[in-house]
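User: Hey, my collaborator sent me this sequence without any context and asked if I could get a structure. I don't really work with proteins. Can you help?
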Amino acid sequence: MARLLLAEDEEVLRMLVSDTLEDDGHEIDEASDGEEALNKIMAHDYDLIVLDYMMPVFTGLEVIEKVRAIPEKKHSRILMLSAKSQVSDQRAAMEAGADYFMAKPFSPIQLSEKIEEILK
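Assistant: No problem. I've predicted the 3D structure and written it out in structure-token form, which is a compact way to encode the shape of the chain:
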């Protein structure tokens, strides 16, 4: 079992993803915006942080940049989820410090498989 943070502003998608990952046996913390995600990252250690690209308050890119600037958190593994699937968007996420990128839409099974691959 891994502990994951899921930061996604779309409530229905957040619930679907959270339920899928909990069914896989993971412990999930949720955040609905970038500020809440950053506060949870500061307060807890996660095996994987799953961030939406476009969120209120701080975007996923801004959260990544802030996390990478914190010495004790800079090695956190981060998966960026985004409806922005252009190569330039993926490049921006990776340059900001994302370790992995997954374009929306995706099926819960695809996300589950991706996360299991990352956590190996």
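In plain terms: The chain has a mean pLDDT of 94. You can pass these tokens on to your collaborator as they are.
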